[in-house]
What we know:
Blueprint: E1 41-44, E2 48-51, H1 54-65, H2 70-84, E3 94-100, E4 107-112, H3 135-139, H4 150-161, H5 166-179, E5 181-182, H6 185-194, H7 202-208, E6 221-222, H8 225-237, H9 240-243, H10 245-256, H11 267-272, E7 276-278, E8 281-285, E9 288-292, H12 299-310, H13 323-343, H14 354-358, H15 360-368, E10 407-412, E11 418-424, E12 434-435, E13 438-439, E14 476-480, E15 483-489, H16 496-509, H17 514-517, E16 523-525, E17 530-533, H18 542-547, E18 552-555, E19 562-567, E20 570-575, E21 582-585
Parallel strand pairs: 17-18
Antiparallel strand pairs: 1-20, 2-10, 2-21, 3-4, 3-11, 4-7, 5-6, 8-9, 9-14, 10-11, 12-13, 14-15, 15-19, 16-17, 19-20
Helix pairs in contact: 1-2, 2-4, 2-5, 5-8, 12-13, 12-15, 12-16
The protein binds 6-diazenyl-5-OXO-L-norleucine.
6-diazenyl-5-OXO-L-norleucine binds next to loops.
Amino acid sequence: MRFATAFLLAGLVVQGARAEQVSDRFAPETATVASRAAPQQGTARTDMVVAAHPLAARAGLDMLEAGGTAVDALVAAQMVLGLVEPQSSGLGGGGFLLHYSSESKDVTSIDGRETAPAAATPDMFLGDDGKPLPFFTAVVGGKSVGTPATLRLMAEAHRRHGRLPFADLLEPAIRLAEQGFPVSPRLADLIAAEGDRLKHDPAAAAYFFDATGAPLKAGAVLRNPAYADTLRRIAAGGEDAFYRGEIAADIVARVTGDATNPGRLATSDLENYTVIAREPVCNAVFSVEVCGMGLPSSGGIAILQILGLVEPWGIERMSPQAPETWRLIGDASRLAFADRERWLADPAYVRAPVSGLLASGYLSLRAKLLDGPGALPEVAPGLPAFDDGALRPPPPAGVTPELPSTTQVVIRDADGDILSYTGTIENGFGSRLMVRGFLLNNELTDFSFAPAGSDGTPVANRVEGGKRPRSSMAPMIVLRDGLPILAIGSPGGSRIIGFVAQALIAHLAWKRPVAEIVAMPHVLNRFGPFEVEAGTAATALVPGLQALGYRVEVQDLNSGLAAIAVTPNGLEGAADPRREGVVYGR
Length: 586
Ligand code: DON
């Protein structure tokens, strides 16, 4: 059986068009964002921006219209996102950029991941009893804050691929911060859901709650003069205005001076922070080349593994409505997660067998494990070859609690440059600490709280001074015959891997258009139980998955996919209907 395609992508006008709800049988039944007036899917000829908030997408498109590049548009969009979607990303966080240059015909990546302070230690997320701290005990306050990286990433991307003056790219965010913007329904809901946790910090409490202490409501006009001032200082003084001097000193004072949960960030951590240009990870699959972010993200590697594990089983011919299809995808994902947990961490600190994990011989061996009638009873990490040819035993599994913020931007400019960027401050509202108009990340809780296995063998993703916590973020670019045909990514913590893998399978194997792949109900498996998206047609799979031997949890699965496909007829873009993202183009 195939998807019923009850909607047409063609014919939708990008700007001003209303979002069409996907009426496919296999699409979400609950339209959580159905009343939004901005377009969540559309077509364009040359330029397109898909971002998680209309004001951010608008700022990006303005830069493209002014003759800017995709990276110029990204910088403008990210600075606005840090204002209007402050819970998800911003100057206090980090991100990963995957970029295709039409000039060099290369996909490159920039790692803008936060680092652990030099003074961080492997045991910092253990309690007095030697056990891992409860997640929010670790998150809220200064302890979880890694060295902010977003501005260095934006500045480096701009040096490489920008055209407009950097200061001009900050203008839309400065204007909005000074004039005010309406609090979105999603931001209002998230503030309300936070309650007192977001009052840990007086600056955050004063910003996100009104004078009576009530959470801001949707539509309330919010001004952020402190953020405008920060951006003006950056516009005048460049990166140094942030990484040295008064702003850096304020960040460090807030982190180290936190009354209940002080952190160890020092001004030298900020001064010394650098982004890293890295080779992306790419593999041939489904007759195209799929490229993703390499370490310290596990996202690209895990997704390439999943695709490489399901392709030999003829996933193209399998139905998205059959539980057996999801058995294959789900157990492939479990195998990838087993490898991820044991092998993957910051390559500057841990030897990681990345080429071995993606080698066709290794993937064929692992794919054979998927030959069976039901759920794999258990999964273990494999033994990939290291670059030196050695086989080493896997280190012990860590303890990394992974809870659902984060934002996804995809952009294509008139030159043909295309990018996929995932930015984050980790948990919604990060560490809850607010300095000079922006929130600080809690990225350090992406490390394993447990530093070693029971026999004392170190966990790959343990905390170490200067190290980058393992991520799941997965900005991806797909090439056919060397030319980009798709850029995609999503928020979602470790569920990002399943969200993006599923969307890629739907696009590349089932030939579904981007508007469908971002809206498809999710069926995920990370660690054994299936997670099936509540309120969607996918719940029909539950009895079948149970009969195959799985435990099934039906729940909200809050992806924020964004995608642009480059087709012979132009650009097709789509933003996830579960969030407030939009598609603008021309
Ligand atoms: O880097 C990571 O994988 C996480 N810090 C991303 C967090 C995230 O996506 C939260 N999601 N909704």
